[in-house]
Write the C-alpha cells for this entry.
Amino acid sequence: MAITRIGKPAIADVRGVNFRNIIINGDMSVSQRSTSSTGISGNGYFSVDRFKHIISGLGTWTASQSTDVPTGQGFANSFKMDCTTADASPAAGDYNVLAQIVEGANIQHLKKGTSSAESVTWSFWVKSNKTGTYICEILDGNNTRQISKSYTISSANTWEKKTITMPGDTSGAIGTGASAFLQFNFWLAVGSDRSSGTLSTTWTSTTNANRAVGQVNLADSTSNEWYITGVQIEAGSQASDFEFLPTDVNLERCQRYYYTHVTGNNQHIGMGGYYASAYVTCGVTFPTTMRSAPSLEQTTGTEYYRLYVNNGSDNFDSFANGIQQATTNSAGIDSNSGVSGTSGQTGRFVTYNSSSKISFDAEL
Amino acid sequence: MNIKNINTVTKTYNTHTNQHENYMVTLVDSNIVISVPLDESNRHYQEIQEWAKIEGNNIIDPGA
C-alpha cells in the first residue's frame, strides 16, 4: 500500500490556522460580567469579555451583548453600544474608544520592531444608523507609536463586513513581560485634540492630533447605536474566515483575564474554616492561569455569604480581609468581620443572597 | 473600577504574618468591594497608585 507523504506546506498550513486571531472573544459570545450594563461614561470593562471602554466626556452609554447579528455568518452575538445621553459638541480632549488590549506574549509572531515585521489585517462585521468614517488604530503604548486606518459605514442599519490591512512596524519591539501590550482601538467619537491633524496611516511616533482624523461623532444623538461582531485581527495581508473556537476554549481564554467564580444564591465557593475564633479563610483555585495576581471583586451586603460548619452555619457580609497570598493560579479569601466559631473547625463556604457575586480580575 | 469612582482605599494586613497583604477599595455608589493584591502588573494596583497621587486622596492605614 502506498504511503501518501504529508508535505511541509500542509504542516505549515495547519500550524498557521490554529489560534490565528489575535483578538479574544471576537464573536462576542462570552459576557461574564453582565449581558447589559447601563450608565457607562468612563473607562472600564462592563459587559462582553475582553473589550474595554475608554471614554472621557463623550456621552453616556449602554453596552450589551446583542443577538442582532449578520445573517448566515455563524455568529450568535454582537456587541452593541447604545447612546443614552448625547454629546453633540465634544470638548477638545474628549474621546470614546472600544478597545482590546493584547498582552505582548500573544503577539510575538508579528515580529514588531524587526525588519521582518508582519502586516496585520483586521476583519469585522459592523452596523450602525450613523453612517460615515470610523477609525481603527493600533496603539503601542510601550514605544509611544501608533497607526490608524479608516473604514466607512455606507448603509444605515445594515450589517457590512470591513477589511483593513496595516503594514508591519519595523520599530518598537514588544516584550513578553506583564506590562507589554498592544492596544487595538475602535474609535467611536473624538474631540479635536485627537483629530485635528492628518490621519497617520503609517507607523509613527504618536502625535495625538493624527490619531482619529475624520471620525464621526457616534455620541451626537440618543438615537445612535453601533454593533460589531466577528472581530478578527491576524498576521498577514489577507483576511481569512473568522476562526470559531469551541465555547469552552473561548471561555477559558477569557478567564485568563476575568473569572466569575460564583454569582447568585446557594453557590459553592470553596473549602476552608476558622483560622481563629473570629477569622475565616477559604481557598479558591482558578480554572486557568491568570495574567497577573488578580483582584477580588465581591458584592457585599447583610449575610451575603455563609460558612457551613459543625452541623450549623455562620453568616457574614463580606470577605472583609480580601484576597490573601494571591498568585496567578489560586488565592485565599478571608474575613475577620461578623464571623464567630471554633478555631480549627473546617467547613464549606457558599453564597447566601441572590446578589452575591465573587469574581477575579487580571485584565490589562 | 477606575480612578474616578474610587471612594476609599484601605491597607489590609495578613493576620498571621502582619504583613501588608492587599488594598481594600470601596467604590462610589456601589456595594462592590475590590481587594487588590500587591502586584505591580495588576491594573487596579496601578490605578490605586495614580489615585493616591491626587491631592486630597489618602490611603487609610489601620495598622497590622
